[in-house]
Amino acid sequence: MTDDTQPDTLRTPIVAVLGHVDHGKTSLLDEIRGSAVSEAEAGAITQHIGATDIPLSTISSMAGELVNPDDFDLPGLLFIDTPGHHSFSTLRARGGALADIAVLVVDVNDGFQPQTEEAIDILRRTGTPFVVAANKIDTTPGWNPQEGEPIQRSLEAQSERAESMLNENLYEIIGQLSDAGFSADLYWRVQDFQKNIGVVPVSAITAEGIPDLLAVLMGLSQRFMKEEMAIDVHGPGEGTVLEVKDERGFGATVDTVVYDGVIRNGDTIVVGGQDEPIVTEVRALLQPRPLAEIRTEKQFEKVAEVGAAAGVKIAAPDLDDAMAGAPVRVVRDRPLQDVIEEVKAELAEIEVDTAEDGVVVKADTLGSLEAMANALREAEVPIMRAEVGDIAPRDIAIAETANQDEHKALLGFNVDVLANAEDELESADVKLFTNDVIYQLIEDYETYVEEKQRAQQETVLDKVVRPARFRLLPDHTFRQNDPAVVGVEVIAGTLQNNRSVGYFEGNEFHRVGSLSGIQKQGDDVDEARSGERVSIAIDGPTVGRDIEEGDTLWTEVPEKHAKILEQELKEEITADEREALAGYLDTRRKRDPFWGK
């Protein structure tokens, strides 16, 4: 056993790699791994579950003179392989982000894209220090590749034209970082990495700039995080679940990143579950076999214990309900209840505020569920239920209970729809939205709600009585009664057929009859607009006794309709209809100030 004060009690910093979908996250990680394997004689990398450990000696041989191993106490870098996408960065370790430091990969030609913005939001929210890898510099027109060289040496080999084109793109990215609230510069110009973000130009294809990226990550970790890397090497292990997976022969297992202490075979552990924390016993700790032995039948080998920082697959009973993003705690010599409470408290930090009525949200990890909840809160969309996991029939049943039609919706972030749920969806009155970009998912839902509201307004508008003011034209009485047929001019609003009409005497409305026909140039029509002259048939009155040529009449708008028009549909009706409505309401309200309110 090592003495706890020795430098080897410093754990490896955990590095996350994030970025937009095709900006080269995976190829960059593969290149770093590949270079590390080719430097194998200098202390080969260790493949972990969901992570790759690159020791200091290998980093030093890859980075050449940029990294002198004597300057560092940290053992190397542990790169987490993102489970499929960026949102994993909200995986937590004790209230902070799981990653100690992050690399944000940006395509130098494309600049910021939606997922870049999301990754930046997450980094800002979790306070994770990061560097920007401006990838794909080798695609600059006229580029002269210098395999594996540090970036400044590579730049010396470029034509002025290629260098200035690259600089233009790099400064574009620096500008976009500035718009996002981060002061940034090319890393060799940065004086204070705590105040400024370093931008490292790299190529995942030619490995140019990768020595610089490793040097910057090592330097930042050593300088600013050394204290955080000091751990109790014998303490009870703490970790975070990356993924829950079924493995043949083991059942449900959890791929876990251990960031503190030690997990041993046989340990009692507490794992965050969908309903309650799961208490179980470690049956096996599995690591991938070394690269040289990957041809063997069994891809994992059992290990007796794992110390931080490391990725490991834990096989234990009852892990089916474990959640990606949830904490894992070794109990060891502490009261079990205390550890359960600790796990509950950490999960409570991620509790999503829910409402009586709202949408149902499903996400792949606790971190992305939290990110979804934050984004929906900002968009003022209420959530009725939010859970980790694929979409199941139960979710559809819950979504169907929403009171408002637009809340009968399921928003799934980076999840699948279970087969039995697909059948339910066909017959259910629930709309499903899925996407692996949070803002896109919410935008799709908002568009759907807007269209639904517009359709509802159009339906209401079709049924509602429109306001109209019209005048009986002199010398245009074609029939005095049964029905009276007269020529009129519409002064404001829309005159509709089959509506009651009347006139104001003082502030009192007198109904005189109802329209039973409108003719325009000899043709029957349903309505007449402001400015049009038409002949109308009115059942009820006699011209010369009840109404006179030259009189101004109004369509009678029922009080409930007037209220809807004024409060909900004002923007949907025309300016002259608004004018007719205002005149009608003013006169009505002189008698009763609360009419139609």
Question: Would you write up a description of this structure?
Answer:
Helix content is 29%, strand content 30%. The chain is α+β, with helices and mostly antiparallel strands and 597 residues long. The chain has an eight-stranded mixed β-sheet with strand order 2-3-4-1-7-8-10-9, sandwiched between helices. It has an eight-stranded antiparallel β-sheet with strand order 15-14-20-11-12-19-16-17. A six-stranded antiparallel barrel has the order 25-26-31-28-27-32. Helix 2 (56-63) packs across helix 6. The longest helix is centred in the C-terminal third of the chain and has 26 residues, at 438-463. The N and C termini lie far apart (81 Å).
Features:
597 residues, alpha+beta, 32 strands, translation initiation factor activity, T_Tr_GTP-bd_dom, nucleotide-binding
How does the SSE layout of this entry go?
Blueprint: E1 14-19, H1 25-38, E2 46-48, E3 51-55, H2 56-63, E4 76-80, E5 92-93, E6 96-97, E7 101-107, H3 114-126, E8 130-135, H4 151-156, H5 160-179, E9 184-186, E10 197-201, H6 210-224, H7 226-229, E11 238-247, E12 251-260, E13 262-264, E14 268-271, E15 278-281, E16 284-288, E17 300-303, E18 305-307, E19 310-315, E20 327-330, H8 336-348, E21 359-363, H9 366-378, E22 383-388, H10 393-400, E23 409-413, H11 419-427, E24 431-435, H12 438-463, E25 468-479, E26 484-496, E27 500-505, E28 508-520, E29 523-524, E30 527-529, E31 533-539, E32 552-555, H13 559-567, H14 575-591
Parallel strand pairs: 1-4, 1-7, 7-8, 8-10, 9-10, 21-22, 21-23, 23-24
Antiparallel strand pairs: 2-3, 3-4, 5-6, 11-12, 11-20, 12-19, 13-18, 14-15, 14-20, 16-17, 16-19, 25-26, 25-32, 26-30, 26-31, 27-28, 27-32, 28-29, 28-31
Helix pairs in contact: 2-6
